[in-house]
Design goal:
With 172 residues, this protein is of the alpha+beta class. The chain has one domain. The protein has five helices and four strands. The chain has a four-stranded antiparallel beta sheet.
Length: 172
């Protein structure tokens, strides 16, 4: 994806859809699940619940004091998201999939930061359990972050362009 304009459009759409869908599902969870018993689907594979998470992933950091929690859960992630946005628009060799993946990470991170700033917690509502394995309780923003990381994985594991040309010369 070569032009600034095309990247900007993709980033705005992906971040907007991610934040909008995440905020909508958190609203629905609050309206329909808060104070209600957990709802189970497909046996007990999918559980819908309502949890206020004052920490980060898997409630990490929820026990931090009032000085460290905002720094480590709001300021530091916000700075990382700004750096990621800078990278998206300055790195010349990102393809469309990489831009989408990084925008998913930005959208998910941004939506969770908004929740922490506005409400002091993030609403989590989804829990999966199958084949003896289970997840922590998560939300759509967390799924967007994980999807972005999953999409980026093949790109992170392939050799850098300079390494690829060296390998081709060695094979010849």
């Amino acid at each position: 994806m070569k032009t600034f304009k095309s990247r900007l459009i993709v980033v705005l759409v992906v971040v907007g859809v991610t934040v909008g869908l995440d905020q909508w599902t958190k609203y629905l969870a609050t309206v329909h699940l808060q104070g209600e018993p957990d709802q189970f689907y497909f046996g007990d594979v999918l559980r819908l619940t309502h949890v206020h998470n004052t920490g980060a992933f898997l409630s990490i950091g929820s026990g931090l004091n009032d000085f460290w929690r905002p720094l480590l859960l709001n300021l530091f992630p916000a700075l990382l998201l700004v750096a990621l946005l800078y990278y998206i628009f300055k790195e010349k060799f990102l393809n469309g999939w990489q831009v989408i993946a990084l925008a998913l990470i930005v959208g998910g991170g941004l939506s969770n930061i908004v929740d922490r700033l506005l409400y002091g917690h993030v609403v989590d509502m989804l829990h999966l359990k199958a084949f003896g394995l289970q997840t922590g309780i998560f939300n759509v923003a967390d799924m967007a972050i994980m999807a972005g990381m999953f999409i980026m994985l093949p790109f992170a594991l392939r050799p850098a362009p300079a390494e690829e040309s060296e390998e081709r010369e060695t094979v010849r």
